[in-house]
Design goal:
By secondary structure, this protein is mainly alpha-helical. It has a domain at 4-77: Arc Repressor Mutant, subunit A (Orthogonal Bundle), CATH 1.10.10.10. Helices cover 66% and strands 12% of the residues. The protein contains seven helices and three strands. It has helices at residues 4-14, 17-28, 34-38, 45-57, 77-86, 89-110, 114-118; strands at residues 32-33, 61-66, 69-74. Strands 1-3-2 form a three-stranded antiparallel sheet. Strand 2 (61-66) and strand 3 form a beta hairpin. It is globular.
């Protein structure tokens, strides 16, 4: 069960654009090193380390020391626990379906229509 302190840490971590982008990179490449992650951002390595500390405090990123480097892994459980706190099985099913419809509609809106191509 996620506590209010855990919730605060997760929401604080997710509130910053750079940290969300870091999580995207870690999700896309599990085992990414801190150095590899730092190279993806135009900020100091200390700033990256500070952001990682916030993500680790929220348990959203897990690190594993391998020699002199640290490998990073995404931990989606805090987000899943938040989801489970406010949804039940029935509403989760329909939220998933609604999300799929939204994604399809947005993708269709991105494609140029045939009438625009003929003009």
């Amino acid at each position: 069960m996620i506590t209010n302190d855990n919730l605060d840490a997760v929401f604080q971590a997710l509130a910053h654009t750079t940290r969300r982008e870091m999580m995207d990179h870690v999700r896309a490449k599990p085992g990414l090193t801190v150095g590899e992650l730092a190279n993806k951002f135009d900020v100091s390595r200390i700033a990256v380390m500070n952001h990682l500390a916030v993500l680790e405090k929220a348990d959203l990123v897990i690190s594993e020391r391998v020699g002199r480097s640290r490998k990073l892994y995404l931990n989606a459980m805090p987000i899943q626990e938040i989801h489970e706190r406010w949804t039940d099985t029935f509403s989760a099913h329909w939220a998933d379906r609604t999300s799929l419809i939204k994604q399809v509609a947005e993708a269709a809106a991105q494609k140029p229509s045939r009438s625009n191509e003929d003009e």
